């Protein structure tokens, strides 16, 4: 089952070692504790211990961390013969990405006198950036080697940081939960990469491109952790106090409404009314994506529920009708359906954010305006112009994602990364030592067959 | 495998859409941010950020949230062919219930000038109420359609809110961890519903009403998350400071003691001393239920351990001897054995709470009395009378649960909800698209058989 | 499959009941709420609610709690026929150990006027001590009865508490994340126990001493929870403020670097470059172990990454080359390879801690020195002498572990604990009621065989 081209014996160790050694050197040269993690700096001032940002953000960080490693990792284990690759490559590229993201994001907006200062907020941001890479991973799942994935991650993290810098620092957009920076970017980048890597003969692996009973249960572990902790995700880096509180609550109600519309649509679009696990595992999460931008605003639970409700409907319809079209007409082979979970809901979230921003008034936000829209609060701009900023940010993100994905897709096509052949996509045994199990049953069956044949022949 | 009566194509979407649209409209009319989630209200006063209740309760909320969706959801996946239904219907009815609970509980004790004010504490309470519905779900698991479950949830949430209001607001009882409001209510309500829905021919589905090796491991995920986070559950809405701290610790030791008595009793009651996964998965949790009322009181770790120890013993004995009797004599078919995990331990918890309350003294509680028993602290009542209040609350809860369950059971019997036939209980494929797996092995076996037969015949 | 010697019908209940009753009595006599969990004591002083240690440490406690029950429990489910034993015995001995540890640790460093005072910090310490027992459990997994495990746990907890007391209180060593007290101690204790319990004929159970496809996915749940929450583990009991913050961050980067070197080495050491799940599940965690001592120091992310990077390499090499040697030459049968995950990385962590301590300067730590090295800050000792203390502590720990393991191993050899025979190691059905599944397939195969034979004979 292995030939020399997909043998990772040298390619993977060399890639990992070179990347990690570069990371370590750059951390040695550039990275420092910030004033809340540095023993000397923290003790210079007279703080209360609970002023340390650790106590405001670390619980949210841990929830986000679970989403990245267990949430994304297990969500993708639905494939019957790619569980190791789903959770294992997710683990590998996430561990690489969060280190690289610390550097790239720090370079763009964490420099202090030539050094990158880090603490819990930068850790959350690094995990966020990693999330974007894992979204793209969902599009190419099962069709790429670990070396391809590491190379993709390296480029995508870099582009993510540039795009994020333009949106948040240059354009002054707000996007705490990342409808644009994380979801829209990750989705369209990934879709473009998988378009460039189009495999006309992927149907040779079609029999493995689906779930079995237990693999769908493993995937539900991923789904539920993403669903439960999404309120922490969207609120992790919003301002302290009412902002974190409000964002978490808006997300909670958006997801609840989304779940009901997902079940309704899944049943409605099946010819015999049966629920489809693909929809439940994915579309029920779209409500979290769609309030990623507006969640910190005064969207109200009422508004959040409407957004979540729509996101669930759009997402199921996408899985049912749009994904087959994308594959047939546009040659986009999207393994996990990221367009339906992150792409369209991300764009919806950006639009909702732009509209919500443009109608912000001091009557509603009071003195809290400064935390949500500082430039509106200071009188520098009108709220309607903040809406324009948000809309421009969506366009910029789409541009970056599509052009970036195009370029990176062609880089990944270079025949040096050990990509699997069409006949062995969605198959763990190409990159992993796989123990018995399914095979063992086959062997037993073969044994029975052989025995009986021998009896017949004798 | 599908006939028209169980086809959910119209029933489920219509139910979900109507419910969600009503919820959204009611949220639009009635619900507002409270003063800790509203930008304007929060910034009116001069707070420190950490005064926001978010930082006191959000970590506990997230633990409770995990218990509701992963804990209850996976605990029920022990059934070999009902994993999708267990975790999937749990997801659906929980998402509906928490929205409806926000309104019902808000209506009874969160109204401010005609509006329901919400924040992290109401989110926890909504999750609590949802937990009660999921307990009842355990009794009817595998024998009900998703539409039946949604209807049951709607009524149960409403009755829960009324009962809770009577207990906490009218009677002045204390029940932070919900031994009465959540566990006793949910259990006896569910038992009455399943009694009304009695199926004399359920043995036609008996071969599916059990576990397989891997499904028991999935169920252990649910068990452990419930076990680990129960200290957060019981302490989530107790008073800040020593109260939350003490409640979490009491629960921790109660559960530890309960686990040892569960293992002991499981081994002791098996004729060959082998441990039974049903006991481990369920009875080891009874210690959390049984300190739901008294956990916030000065029960001491010593007292908590005694309570947990007894709860484990009672629960295993219930599974072993009482459940078969209930089914045979009283025609109560209790799929998950909720009477043993929530029913009896809930009653035990109520009694322990009443006794502990009645012996409270200022010598023990000091100025902390005001947080635990405000009416005793203010001198309005004697501690012994607080005990009486607690005892009356148990009786009221049992009455509400049994009468409510009776009525709702008859409603669910209406032949319009697509309930499964006796032959297809505990079977996912009636409501779900189910991928291959077990079948595939059967197919392989059939193939071998056919092949061999052909050889014989030729 | 059961004979009288392994029948647990009396042995297990008696052991559990006696242990739990003794625990309850000792708690009744010795244990009291501390001033943060006691209603009267807390309300005597005029605190802010958020001064209660609960808010500083409870989120970390819950993360540690998940590591102990889900992390360790599922990490060991990789064995194909020992999932119940892995997660179930883990549950049992952890529940016992945390109660016993509360008493033992309290006896050595929590006594106040003859009483043991407990709160969230003692709960974390009890979970830590339990972790050490679970490490040792990994070495003897599948080869011991639950009674043997309970007896081992009782002795190991006691020795752990003595060793911890000597290190932290007498020698003045620092070891917040327990590279020495938890990992080195647990590993070498367990290795010595398994050495004494050496089974020359263990190969009779060899066919069960490995994983199947799904059991490796269950194990990844354990791995990922350990990996994600390790930052909470190492920082759970460090000083408030910058110390907790810094420790969590150092651990985060150490683990990320470790993951990349693990993947690299796993691929490099396989003859066809395929990744080995055993390495991914275990070696990727070594980075957390290796910064257990130095994580709270000013190790810098750069230093942490170097340590993690080395730990991953050492750990994979250990699995690949050292474990087979240990089994062959030294007769150490280490089921889970704890020497590679906890043993060597623990020693590495102790050495890194000693070196980092010995180079501490006021220039780097400022006034924060008092939190990390109080005796250096007070001028009582030089930093270099703190390094010597750390090194002596490692030697003491190794001595305690090896001698303790030797004695306890011989105790466990007494032929009264119902240890499994060589032919039934790594097999759940000896101590558990096991439902169908694998057997059912075998039965089906047998049925086919029989049917065909009958046809042939007729």
Summarize the structure in words:
Three copies of one chain form a homotrimer. Chain A has 458 residues and is mainly α. Chain A has helices spanning 11-30, 39-44, 54-75, 83-109, 120-140, 146-170, 179-196, 213-235, 242-269, 277-282, 286-290, 300-330, 338-358, 362-365, 369-372, 374-377, 383-412, 438-457, and strands spanning 31-33, 111-112, 115-118. The first copy, chain A, has one domain (8-443): Ammonium transporter AmtB like domains (Ammonium transporter fold, Orthogonal Bundle), CATH 1.10.3430. Chain A has a three-stranded mixed β-sheet. Chain A is globular, with a radius of gyration of 23 Å. Residues 437-452 of chain A have low confidence and may be disordered.
User: Which CATH architecture of chain A?
Assistant: Orthogonal Bundle
Whole-angstrom Rg of chain A: 23 Å
Strand proportion of chain A, as a percent range, falls in under 5%
What is the fold-level CATH name, i.e. the topology of chain A? Ammonium transporter fold
Oligomer: homotrimer
Largest sheet of chain A: 3 strands, mixed
* Helical content of chain A (DSSP H or I, runs of 4+): 55-70%
Number of domain units of chain A? 1
The CATH class designation of chain A is Mainly Alpha
The poorly predicted ranges of chain A are 437-452
Please name the fourth-level CATH homologous superfamily of chain A.
Answer: Ammonium transporter AmtB like domains
* Total beta-strand segments of chain A: 3
Distance between the ends of chain A: 35 Å
Shape of chain A: globular
SS-derived structural category of chain A: mainly alpha
Number of helices of chain A: 18
What pattern of helices and strands is seen along the backbone of chain A? HEHHHEEHHHHHHHHHHHHHH
Mean pLDDT of chain A: 94
Physical arrangement of strands within the biggest beta sheet of chain A: 1-3-2
The most extensive interface between chains reads: A-B, 78 and 81 residues
């Amino acid at each position: 089952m292995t030939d020399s081209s997909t043998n990772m014996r040298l390619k993977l160790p060399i890639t990992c070692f070179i990347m990690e050694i570069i990371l370590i050197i750059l951390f040695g040269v550039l990275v420092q504790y910030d004033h809340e993690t540095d023993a000397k700096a923290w003790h210079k001032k007279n703080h209360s211990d609970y002023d340390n940002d650790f106590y405001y953000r670390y619980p949210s960080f841990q929830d986000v961390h679970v989403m990245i490693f267990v949430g994304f990792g297990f969500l993708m284990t639905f494939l019957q013969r790619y569980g190791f690759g789903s959770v294992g490559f997710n683990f590998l590229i996430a561990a690489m990405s969060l280190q690289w993201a610390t550097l790239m994001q720090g370079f763009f907006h964490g420099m202090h006198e030539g050094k990158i200062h880090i603490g819990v907020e930068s850790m959350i941001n690094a995990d966020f950036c990693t999330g974007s890479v894992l979204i793209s991973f969902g599009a190419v799942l099962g069709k790429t080697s670990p070396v391809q994935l590491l190379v993709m991650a390296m480029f995508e993290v870099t582009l993510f940081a540039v795009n994020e810098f333009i949106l948040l620092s240059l354009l002054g957009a707000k996007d705490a939960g990342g409808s644009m920076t994380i979801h829209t970017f990750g989705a369209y980048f990934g879709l473009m990469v998988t378009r460039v890597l189009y495999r006309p003969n992927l149907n040779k692996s079609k029999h493995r491109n689906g779930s079995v009973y237990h693999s769908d249960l493993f995937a539900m572990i991923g789904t539920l952790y993403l669903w439960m902790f999404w309120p922490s995700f969207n609120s992790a880096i919003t301002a302290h106090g009412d902002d974190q509180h409000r964002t978490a609550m808006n997300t909670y109600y958006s997801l609840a409404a989304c779940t009901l519309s997902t079940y309704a649509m899944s049943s409605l679009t099946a010819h015999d009314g049966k629920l489809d696990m693909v929809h439940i595992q994915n579309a029920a999460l779209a409500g979290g994506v769609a309030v990623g931008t507006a969640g910190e605003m005064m969207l109200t639970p009422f508004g959040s529920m409407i957004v979540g409700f729509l996101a669930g409907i759009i997402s199921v319809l996408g899985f049912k009708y749009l994904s087959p079209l994308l594959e047939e007409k546009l040659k986009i082979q999207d393994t996990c359906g990221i367009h339906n979970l992150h792409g369209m809901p991300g764009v919806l979230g950006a639009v909702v954010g732009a509209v919500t921003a443009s109608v912000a008034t001091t009557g509603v936000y009071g003195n809290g305006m400064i935390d949500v829209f500082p430039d509106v609060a200071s009188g520098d701009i009108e709220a309607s112009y903040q809406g324009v900023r948000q809309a421009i940010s969506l366009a910029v993100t789409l541009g970056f994602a599509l052009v970036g994905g195009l370029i990176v897709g062609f880089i990944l096509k270079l025949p040096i990364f050990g990509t699997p052949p069409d006949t062995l996509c969605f198959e763990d045994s190409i990159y992993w030592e796989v123990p018995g199990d399914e095979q063992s049953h086959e062997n037993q069956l073969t044994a029975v067959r052989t025995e009986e044949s021998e009896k017949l022949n004798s």
